């Protein structure tokens, strides 16, 4: 239905409002847009007058908070901006014409290897898009996606909230991490029986920690957990100094050179049902249409992982 009068609100007002709500402060929204906070405040004030009620409450030293109406308008404004992006994209011949911000999330275990490669490829293809990224653990990244603070995020496709949709990128298969001087260090692969009596350094973060323990249980191995850590770097360091071995789910083509870290990463030799990989995926909310920038990020990721998988 076409409105009989010209709309009182503008896309720019909606854009400023969404960025302020997601950033938490007018100052941060202004920084991202290279504008003065007062200009952002004026723009949002115009939107509030068009809507007829307050959308953001300014709290001294605590940034801004959404009102009940503000939360409702936020979802509509995001959809409006997404549709505007889609319309504008119809006339674009290539990704180099894309403009605007994009906030990407990443499971903290994937960040060191995926984010640098993605930022490099994406900047080359979409130089006009300003990408900000946030790392977090599995649960944190999903919460941010559902809250609208992230456009899209790299996750392990296990234990993913049903309100999110995922695009599979690659398989991360189970591997065994041993010290470089371990007797199995030169083997082509390792069976769980080979390490059954060795102390385990457990990467203890969902969804991978529980998956490793289930893998060992299904293989009839009672793990002797010596250390637990939610940091891949700490797990690798503990293994390097001989504190135990680890079982990790890895996409080896994107991993750092393990020889330089004093460890060896070896494929797990096990029955197919035990060695099932976990997928690395890009997740986004089902409730909103991805922006044209988010879709470009997904496309570049698919291209990158296809290239890596073909090497």
Automatic annotation (TrEMBL):
Gene3D superfamilies tied to this protein: Periplasmic binding protein-like II, Winged helix-like DNA-binding domain superfamily/Winged helix DNA-binding domain
Coiled-coil region: none
SUPFAM superfamilies hit by this protein: Periplasmic binding protein-like II, Winged helix' DNA-binding domain
Location of the HTH lysR-type domain: 9-67
InterPro entries hit by this protein: LysR_HTH_N (IPR000847), LysR_subst-bd (IPR005119), WH-like_DNA-bd_sf (IPR036388), WH_DNA-bd_sf (IPR036390)
Alphabetical keyword list: DNA-binding, Transcription, Transcription regulation
Family named by the database record: Belongs to the LysR transcriptional regulatory family.
Protein name as it appears in the record: LysR substrate-binding domain-containing protein
Organism: Sinomonas flava
